[in-house]
Design goal:
The complex is a heterodimer of chains A (240) and B (256). Chain A is an alpha/beta fold and 240 residues long. Chain A has seven helices and nine strands; from the N terminus they run E-E-E-H-E-E-H-H-H-E-H-E-H-E-E-H. Helices cover 35% and strands 28% of the residues of chain A. In chain A, strands 5-6-7-3-8-9 form a six-stranded mixed sheet, sandwiched between helices. Chain A has a three-stranded antiparallel sheet with strand order 2-1-4, with helices on one face. In chain A, helix 3 packs across helix 4 and helix 6 packs across helix 7. The longest helix of chain A is centred in the C-terminal third of the chain and has 18 residues. Chain B has one domain: MetI-like (MetI-like fold). Helices cover 78% and strands 0% of the residues of chain B. Chain B contains ten helices and no strands. Chain B is globular and about 75 Å long. The two termini of chain B are 34 Å apart. The chains are: A alpha/beta (240), B mainly alpha (256). At the A-B interface, strand 5 of A face helix 7 and helix 8 of B.
């Protein structure tokens, strides 16, 4: 079943003295439960595309269709964007502000605190935890929202290599069994191939190419198949 | 340790004062000796004079400050949330901001008489701008990235105000209240020096007229002590209510 369809999506910003085209004729279909990664150079329009899907910006042209039409969208930003005045558990519960059943809220938050290894830090404020924990909290907040589609905008971009590698593994373990549809933006080719079942290569506001990654999880960056796909993706970006 | 460091300079000044008075370097009329000031303080406390004046001033400050907050806070919220009103309200507010409340005392006495109302009006004017400007500043500096989180989770404008804007600008509001309280005390004493029959300002003026510099010093020290105590209490409340922002508020204040 299709979860998300983008038909001829375009985005143009009206600046003071000229127009800036960020996206041109984006056509993309994402199936339910698919993990799709979008990769490209900085400024190629991948974040803009994600913001359009999230409804944070209005498209200039094209059609954006969700199945179901009122699909819940969860968003994980590049920075954790946690509320500094809320503890880790309250930041997660922030996604459930509209939920009136407080017991359900507590159960959901506790479940994801355990899953993300944040139980011991549930009462800590964002200023008291590491960058990796903060980003895990942001992921937990998105999961508490129980979205149909999760959009992730370079969520591991600001983390050190070790934390990043650990969280990449955790993301696969978290999302694959849950069957969530994921659109994951990154500028790291290895990360794109490591996580995605499909890798979309973007450049200059357009989709340049698409690669299927038919490798089982967990993936090994040292495998020949992984290396081959990675090389193809890299070439697609470099020849832009 | 910080308490000891903080008491070092006052202790040194007290020592200098003691030495100067013991050596009779300056006339007792100009600077009375510390023991005389202490004795007079005990007499004023015993007779209830100091507490009477203090409670009168305290009531005026709390009443005036509360009324000021009731005006300044909602107006700042209204302007902060609805930027389209700003061009209409900002110029007159900017004009009034530059007028010292004490300059208005003659007109305030003319309009409200010599009683409590004119003094309250002075305090209201003095406390208004610190509260108003800091609240407005807090709202306008609210992190747009956090607002986007609210959008992402489907919060409506009221929910975004309650769950994001208000907590985000709470440190600025507290700073505005602290400054407002300080300004209230300063303006009150000024108002009481001009026209009053009770209050710390009146006590100082009365002491000056009967050449009791010891009572003047008691009045000055009392104002400082009360101002410091209220500010300290406020700071403690702020720390208690905002455990995540223990050392941020004081650096982002807007002084009118």
């Amino acid at each position: 079943m299709t979860a998300l369809t983008l038909n001829g999506i375009g985005k143009t910003y009206l600046l003071e003295d000229h127009q800036l085209t960020a996206l041109t004729d984006i056509n993309l279909t994402v199936e339910t439960g698919q993990f799709v990664t979008i990769v490209g150079r900085s400024g190629c329009g991948k974040t803009t595309l994600l913001r359009l899907v999230a409804g944070l910006e209005a498209k200039t042209s094209g059609q954006l269709l969700f199945t179901p039409p009122n699909a819940k969208i969860g968003l994980v930003f590049q920075e954790p964007r946690l509320m500094p005045w809320l503890t880790v558990q309250d930041n997660m519960a922030f996604a459930l502000l509209k939920e009136t059943d407080r017991k359900l809220v507590e159960q959901t938050v506790t479940h994801y605190l355990k899953l993300l290894h944040l139980e011991d830090f549930r009462s800590a404020y964002p200023s008291q935890i590491s960058g990796g924990m903060a980003q895990r909290t942001a992921v937990g907040r998105a999961l508490c929202f129980n979205p149909d589609i999760i959009l992730m905008d370079e969520p591991l971009g600001a983390l050190d290599a070790f934390t990043r590698a650990a969280l990449q593994k955790e993301l696969v373990l978290l999302f694959r069994p849950a069957g969530k549809t994921i659109l994951f933006v990154t500028h790291d080719v290895d990360e794109a191939v490591l996580l995605g079942q499909r890798v979309i290569v973007m450049g200059d506001g357009k989709i340049l190419n698409e690669f299927a990654v038919p490798l089982p999880y967990p993936r090994n960056t040292a495998d020949k198949e992984f290396y081959d796909i990675r090389t193809q993706v890299l070439q697609a970006i470099m020849t832009e | 340790m910080n308490l000891i460091k903080g008491l070092a300079l006052p202790a040194f000044l007290l020592l200098v004062w003691l030495i100067v008075s013991k050596l009779k370097l300056i006339s007792f009329y100009i600077i009375p000796p510390p023991e005389q000031v202490l004795a007079t303080t005990l007499i004023l406390l015993e007779k209830g004079t100091l507490l009477k004046h203090l409670s009168t001033s305290f009531y005026r400050v709390i009443a005036g400050f509360s009324i000021s907050f009731l005006f300044a806070f909602p107006i700042a919220i209204l302007l902060g949330m609805n930027r389209r009103f700003a061009p209409f309200i900002n110029p007159p507010l900017e004009f009034v901001r530059h007028i010292p409340p004490l300059a208005c005392i003659p007109m305030l006495i003319l309009w409200f008489g010599i009683g409590e109302a004119s003094k309250l009006a002075v305090i209201i004017m003095a406390a208004f701008f610190p509260i108003f400007l800091n609240t407005l500043n807090g709202i306008s500096q609210c992190d747009q990235k956090l607002m986007e989180v609210g959008d992402a989770f489907g919060l409506n404008p009221y929910e975004k105000f309650r769950r994001i804007i208000l907590p985000a600008c709470l440190p600025a509001i507290i700073v505005g209240m602290r400054l407002g309280l300080g300004y209230s005390w300063r303006a009150l004493i000024g108002a009481e020096l001009v026209a009053a029959s009770a209050g710390i300002g009146y006590m100082i003026l009365d002491a000056e007229q009967i050449s009791r510099s010891d009572i003047v010093i008691i009045g000055i020290l009392t104002i400082g002590a009360i101002g410091y105590s209220i500010d300290y209490l406020f700071l403690k409340i702020a720390h208690y209510s905002m455990p995540w922002a223990k050392r941020t508020a004081a650096h982002d204040s807007v002084n009118p």
